[in-house]
Amino acid sequence: MSVVGRPIARVEGRLKVTGAARYTADLPQDDGKDLVHAVAVCAAVAKGRITSIDARQARAAGGVLELITHHNAPRLRPVPAQEVLGPAHETLLVLQDDRVHYSGQPVAVVVADTLENATHAASLVRVEYAEERPVATLFEGIDDAFDSPRYAPPTTIGDVDRGLADAAVVIDRTYTTPAQHHHPMETMATTVRWTADEVTVHVSTQTISMVRDGLATTFGLRPEQVRVVSEFLGGGFGGKAAWCWPSVVTAMAARLTGRQVRLVTTRRQMFAATGQRPHSVQRVRLGARRDGVLTAIAQDCVGETSAFYDTPPFYIGAATPVPYGCPNIRTTQRFVKVNCQTPVPMRSPVEGVGLVSVESAMDELAAELGVDPLELRRRNYAERDPNSGLPWSSNGLLECYERGARRFGWPERNPEPRSMRDGRYLVGWGMATAIRHAGSDPTSALVRLGADGRAVVQIGSQDLGTGTFTIMTQVAADALGVPVEMMRAELGDTDLPTGGGSFGSHTAASVAAAARLAGEALRAKVIRIAVADEGSPLSGASPDDVLVDDGYLFVRGDRSRGERYAQILRRNRLQSATGDHTPPPREGATVARWAFGADFTEVKVDPELGTVRVTRHVKAIEAGRIINPRTARSQVIGGVVMGIGQALTEATEVDRRDARITNAGFWGYHVPVNADVPDIEAIFVERDDPHIPGSVKGLGEIATIGTAPAILNAVFHATGKRVRDLPITPDKLL
Amino acid sequence: MESSGRAAGGPSRRQVLGRGALIGAATVGAGLAPQAGAARAATAPPVREETLAAEPVEISLRVNGRERTLSVEPRTTLLDALRERLGLTGTKKGCDQGACGACTVLVDGRRVNSCLTLAVMQRDAEITTIEGLARGDELHPVQRAFLECDAFQCGYCTSGQIMSAVALIEEGHAGSPEEVREWMSGNICRCGAYPNIVAAVRQAAGGGAR
């Protein structure tokens, strides 16, 4: 039986439960002699100019080696290609001039022999500013909102105005979602050694190749002079997907001091270091016939971007692909420049935010029409992708609805709001649809087999914690035909064959495709060697007739005529083969590749206190074939937990007077804790997809899309009150 | 450093407290520290020299049953001493503010956020870190349960979760899933492995897996 599809334990699990897994900030300190520490000093105003920096006391403090400001920082080259480097590239021209664009922007970096000395010296740097009035929130600049036709073009299908005019019922509502921060448990850590020949960077990143190319461009190096390593990553969720200033200033410090420099951003600095999910306002209009069939969907979104960023891309907007069959669809995205860090993707930047409004509006439409919310969605099931007009490559959405609803007990729902109770608690049931584009990136793998029969699979990808090490191992072992214990995975190093970024739900599909190609290529190569090897029992057999099982190669029909990989390799040299996955081009596609899901949730609301608790949640997902149900289940549970935070607790709060974040820590920015989370059930509706290698669609984002709107809808069902402003804190229900 | 002073000012709290107390103060109250705008005097008085010395002191720490001698400054947290001086990097820094639990270790059997205590305060204590749980190749039952229940993804909070779990089982707080949820709520897991963590703790406590 194939190891692909089996719930094997994480291959790196033992390292993680024993504390032996080395994350970036854990790396050995190079004999403890050379490593020094950098600490950033960040701007205390959101807009203005630095008028003076008094660093005398800091420079005189014990152990200080270097103090970098815009006066003495190495000059950086702008990185021109937005498409290559993500949305944060312009923010990376740090320490280049006296301008301050957002609170928390680095204005100085102190390097000292110990972390304590660097931290202390940083506290002694006195910065004076000529403060200007910042744009603190998107509402202040909403009249100046601009569109970005090149990077965030509108979607127009059919005639929305006519569809609305023809509708029997029109729902016209506006929703707001707050800025959020990713908050991986590991903050951004970077260690850089800069020698004459090579720059070696250990960094917490979801994209080692982006950091390599970005640093090379910025510092005027060739990419091959930069090596980037990120083996164990303490989460990311998009917050480590874009290239950001900590790695730039650490590289500056390493270049100026000639030492190996480590910079670990503080939790508070994480609010300005890596960018955020942007604050958004979403107006949705749904037109429908009396039976609920949609005649028009219009979604007009405004989101924030940073004050110095002119070309915001679609993936920081909320305007979302629509999951329903409807002849008339229009989505538009506009942006407002705010004195904040440049937004970046956060675990489904488009659907995860934009479907909050669409799915809530669908629930409002269902209530208006007196149609069951699930039935309304069934009636609007899209037979083809409404966004592209193409047929689906595969689509298990209806089965997600059916199995999720059955497991949850949806038919027992009393449609009347405030009708269900548990003692003094109001009980609400809500649901939502989730969709997410399924793609992959160009990825290369190398599989190597040694004379001991052990194999290694290498890909320059990253493991966010989602199980990449494990699924690489499974797929490569299966393709080569060896037991999974005989395969080891290596990733997270630009010296390895090139992989893509670990974001966009692309990693599993990309890595699995490349690992399979490389494993199969190596299997074919060794078979060719064996059949030509007179010393082999397989000598003279047709390569097509040689089968492999558990590391044993034999001739079809005669299991006794064969030998093990190890025996062949002992007579020949160590062997390896590569596999290169090239994703199908999006241009000219003939099918639409998407993953699907349906969330069903129960909340209990305290009518006196306005507190909301999620008490159970069922999520059904169709993401093609699941490589490892154990890691996949954990990923889905984690996505639902993040959705609970999005719905109920998480918001980055900004002081409107000075555009500074007021809750910059776990003490003020509330991510869900154990007591906030109920039992969560994940159901996998599996589908073969002939248009996707291995039928792997990816889970990272579909895991969280749909959860927040399902909770919003459940809160309405419980209380009769429709909250259109996330998160649903108690004050909004009282 | 969180942010610099907004404008040059008179003697700030940190200067008065001096170097020795700085890190401790910043550690416990980093979220409250009014770095910006604490003083907005138009003219800066002469810079004051620091008032307290912070010479390293030689201390012994008893970690995972071994006596370790090291030289630390009084302001060094137990967390930084473990990680940066003793090379015990299994204990993680998640917030350095006592709000996430990633740095949880056992001090005399009690769970403690090691970012909120100074190394020099733990001279006579018995400290246990994640590296001290397994006996050779044999994992501690809580470690085994975390593996079997897939009670983590990225693994960064896992050391702290496991140390918390070991203590709460000892405390007798693993009697029901609800109790485990409540008593494990000082340990944040952003990957959201909570249901599996509850299952693992219950399994290790002998209360059934799922």
UniProtKB/TrEMBL annotation, chain A:
<dbReference type="InterPro" id="IPR008274">
    <property type="entry name" value="AldOxase/xan_DH_MoCoBD1"/>
</dbReference>
<dbReference type="GO" id="GO:0004854">
    <property type="term" value="F:xanthine dehydrogenase activity"/>
</dbReference>
<dbReference type="Pfam" id="PF20256">
    <property type="entry name" value="MoCoBD_2"/>
</dbReference>
<protein>
    <submittedName>
        <fullName>Xanthine dehydrogenase YagR molybdenum-binding subunit</fullName>
        <ecNumber>1.17.1.4</ecNumber>
    </submittedName>
</protein>
<dbReference type="InterPro" id="IPR000674">
    <property type="entry name" value="Ald_Oxase/Xan_DH_a/b"/>
</dbReference>
<keyword id="KW-0500">Molybdenum</keyword>
<feature type="domain" description="Aldehyde oxidase/xanthine dehydrogenase a/b hammerhead">
    <location>
        <begin position="18"/>
        <end position="133"/>
    </location>
</feature>
<dbReference type="GO" id="GO:0005506">
    <property type="term" value="F:iron ion binding"/>
</dbReference>
<dbReference type="InterPro" id="IPR016208">
    <property type="entry name" value="Ald_Oxase/xanthine_DH-like"/>
</dbReference>
<dbReference type="InterPro" id="IPR037165">
    <property type="entry name" value="AldOxase/xan_DH_Mopterin-bd_sf"/>
</dbReference>
<dbReference type="InterPro" id="IPR046867">
    <property type="entry name" value="AldOxase/xan_DH_MoCoBD2"/>
</dbReference>
<dbReference type="Pfam" id="PF01315">
    <property type="entry name" value="Ald_Xan_dh_C"/>
</dbReference>
<dbReference type="InterPro" id="IPR036856">
    <property type="entry name" value="Ald_Oxase/Xan_DH_a/b_sf"/>
</dbReference>
<keyword id="KW-0560">Oxidoreductase</keyword>
<dbReference type="Pfam" id="PF02738">
    <property type="entry name" value="MoCoBD_1"/>
</dbReference>
From TrEMBL, chain B:
<dbReference type="Pfam" id="PF00111">
    <property type="entry name" value="Fer2"/>
</dbReference>
<feature type="domain" description="2Fe-2S ferredoxin-type">
    <location>
        <begin position="57"/>
        <end position="133"/>
    </location>
</feature>
<keyword id="KW-0001">2Fe-2S</keyword>
<protein>
    <submittedName>
        <fullName>Xanthine dehydrogenase YagT iron-sulfur-binding subunit</fullName>
    </submittedName>
</protein>
<dbReference type="InterPro" id="IPR052914">
    <property type="entry name" value="Aldehyde_Oxdr_Iron-Sulfur"/>
</dbReference>
<dbReference type="GO" id="GO:0046872">
    <property type="term" value="F:metal ion binding"/>
</dbReference>
<dbReference type="GO" id="GO:0016903">
    <property type="term" value="F:oxidoreductase activity, acting on the aldehyde or oxo group of donors"/>
</dbReference>
<dbReference type="InterPro" id="IPR036884">
    <property type="entry name" value="2Fe-2S-bd_dom_sf"/>
</dbReference>
<dbReference type="InterPro" id="IPR002888">
    <property type="entry name" value="2Fe-2S-bd"/>
</dbReference>
<dbReference type="Pfam" id="PF01799">
    <property type="entry name" value="Fer2_2"/>
</dbReference>
<keyword id="KW-0411">Iron-sulfur</keyword>
<dbReference type="InterPro" id="IPR012675">
    <property type="entry name" value="Beta-grasp_dom_sf"/>
</dbReference>
<dbReference type="InterPro" id="IPR036010">
    <property type="entry name" value="2Fe-2S_ferredoxin-like_sf"/>
</dbReference>
<comment type="pathway">
    <text>Alkaloid degradation; nicotine degradation.</text>
</comment>
<dbReference type="InterPro" id="IPR001041">
    <property type="entry name" value="2Fe-2S_ferredoxin-type"/>
</dbReference>
<keyword id="KW-0479">Metal-binding</keyword>
<keyword id="KW-0560">Oxidoreductase</keyword>
<dbReference type="GO" id="GO:0051537">
    <property type="term" value="F:2 iron, 2 sulfur cluster binding"/>
</dbReference>
<dbReference type="InterPro" id="IPR006058">
    <property type="entry name" value="2Fe2S_fd_BS"/>
</dbReference>
<keyword id="KW-0408">Iron</keyword>
<dbReference type="InterPro" id="IPR006311">
    <property type="entry name" value="TAT_signal"/>
</dbReference>
